[in-house]
Amino acid sequence: MRFDVDAFAADHARPLTCVHRILDVEPDRYGSTLRCETLRIRRERRERYGTELETGVPLGAGPVATVRVDVITPAVLRFRFAAGEVVSDNAAPMLVSELPTEPEFELDIAADVRLRTSLLQVTLARAPYHAQVVDARGSSLLDTVGLGMPASDPALAGSGLGGMEEPWPWFLPELLPLGFVEDDARRSCQVFETSRLHHDEHVYGLGERFGPIDKRGQAVTLWQANAAGTHWPLSYKNVPFLLSTAGYGHFVNSVAPIAYHPGDRSHAHWSVQVQDQVLDYFLIAGPSFREILPRYTDLTGRPRLPPLWSFGLWVSRMGCETKAAVETVAERLRAERISSDVIQVDNGWWERPWINDLAFSTERFPDPAGMARRLGALGFRLGLWQFPYISTASALYEPGRAGGYFATGEDGEPLFIDGFFGPAAVVDFSDPEAVARYGQALQRLLHLGVSVIGTDFGEGAPPDANYHGGSGLALHNLYPLLYNKAVFEVTERTTGEGLVWSRSAYAGSQRYPLHWSGDPAACWEDLAADLRGGLGFGLCGFPFWSHDIGGFTGTPTPQLYVRWAQAGLFASHPRLHGSTGREPWRFGERALATFRADATLRYRLLPYVWSEAVRCVRQSQPLLRPLVLDWQDDPTTFTIGDQFLLGEHLLVVPVLDRLGRRRAYLPEGAWMDYWRGTVLHGPRWLELEAPLEELPIFLRAGAIIPMADPVPHSGMLDWDRLTLDIFPASSSRFVVVRDDLVETTVTCTDTAGWSQIELQPVPSVQRLRLRGIGGPCAATLDGRPVPRARVGGDLLVSADQPFHTCVVEKRTGAPP
Fold first, then answer.
1. Which position among 70, 276, 431, 456 bears the catalytic label?
2. Is 464 a catalytic residue?
3. Catalytic residue among 193, 208, 346, 519
4. Is 24 one of the catalytic residues?
5. Do residues 344 and 577 lie in contact, with contact meaning Cβ atoms separated by under 8 Å?
6. What is the pLDDT of residues 126-184, one digit of tens each?
7. DSSP conformation class of 579
8. Which value, to the nearest 10 degrees, does the dihedral of the CA atoms of residues 154, 156, 157, 159 take?
9. Which one from 346, 459, 530, 750 is the annotated catalytic residue?
10. Is 280 a catalytic site residue?
């Protein structure tokens, strides 16, 4: 069974049933319930001046429909619509168990229905019904199309285009007012709504999608799929959440197939279609993305913080592995001085390839617990790959079949999914008993010393199967959330650290980090597409994301490998992985030396990355930030999907072709070339040429970057011996978070005469590097004069122990 949401709505043999006018209003303490009259409409095609267009003819009254509007918070509204006089609660696993409720609002139903919170004003026109939501700035966040509109728009008065007693306005084909359409047997239903777009509006989100980061003008279908790379519109991670530069977020609370049309059918409208009986969505006001994202995760769950070691380098390889091969890679990583933390064994650890029995091969991995101990002694965590499909040849198949732990067909027997691993049953993660039994098998592995389980696949749950928790249509999109939740929770219970390594996701999956991008090919185009996917995914409430350095399929050239490594080492979680080996020594001495230097820099930056990760979790912000997140009012940033901020202070510009040249945009403010110390001022475009050994990086004015001494793995970081790399601005602040979550707030005040750096309450810094401090100066630490050194235009200050205050006097002036 497959679904084409657009084709279902476009079938003109099915009449539309659309909300026409409000009949009755029932207010309560949370909002209002509106009983509405509907009209049934037959669509017809008509040729006009050589073009086939759409018209509609009213067929008479349809069933009573209900619209429900709830105030969740002053900035968040919930709209629900269904045929009949009852709208269900529509509880779904994407939502947190208890939604926030701050229903303070004013309601006026004398004429149109008007609802006002401290931040929003809602108008629900009685006839023809349509909804408008305006924020405190007067900006329209929602302005839906009603029946007869825009014929009923005052601007078109006297145009001869009447209301619904006239044919459907021919200039609105497939832009459907609030309503629904059913199939002939009324076994399937689709609901829909259309709203207006601002002329300068840009939209983002909707999951990990590898096309342009700005989704305006793109038709987007949300249906989990093995994307088979990064070339196609398909997505491993579909999230029904849209962000708009007009200042709102739109989250559809549904697991059904969903189609978004943000400006592709009409340059002035966007629409949403859901293959379900109920249209249920949350409108989230900002106006900034920084405000919208935490309000969205208040609904779907705040993200979790992975353990510190997970932010180190992961090393993996597809293929038949052996214990000796795994230990050899680990030993060579240390011998080559490649900082790294995780050895991940891919699909070769089972007895037979692709036969998922969740047990190590006794021949190739005779002592897995001993292997985990030896890896631990070298500073490595052990990760394992698996998938949720159980081959009929697996020892787990018959017990699972007997226990009813698999998705089934109409005959009650397991429904097989076919792939390169042969017929296999699908674990039913909507069944608590199946989750428990699968968890027991994983626990045995975790007790052997495994630290993390890779949850690959998850996008292929058959929609024509039956599940404990509902129909296949209800479980297909939801499956990744349930799958990752099950593995995350058993890992957390067993090891004390919650973590998965997952390819698939849905709304709410940010509660179960972390995710990587799937299977790009080893080509330049896929590197760029990967970055677009990750930056868009971050705008869906996911702070963390990774991608396979070098691409998954094929073998990269040494040049592509180095450039991918430079980008990947600045992801939240860098990983080497591919269908062939991705260890840096495979690509020549120059690549090895460059990779070693970049990995060393990554580990020196771990205190900064970790501190920013903690902040991003608390604020529901992505660690990899597209420029539009911080410069939402700068139109130049709206389409930039090939450079990013790592945290708030490091601007990273990956090189994405073999020529080593690219254009880069510096937003407003002062920026310092990380390598040369040159200060540039934005907004401006740069033409960059970067040698292979160099990744263009810029420090944002006011940057405070805590750095560690070089270490082979994260467990050896010395948190009492940090260096602060500072690009002083008039005033800036940064919270350094240690591995034990103890915090030190660093403030830097800079004037023409002096710079002052204060650390409170717990000092953990022994060295400072102040960028761009020219001329003679003197430095004191906690009031005591100290030696200082100069490297180019930078001033280095060091002490024998951590300090609270550093004052640097420059040229003239005196400290406060």
1. 456
2. no
3. 519
4. no
5. yes
6. 999 999 999 999 999 999 998 874 434 444 344 333 444 444 444 456 778 999 998 76
7. S
8. -170
9. 459
10. no
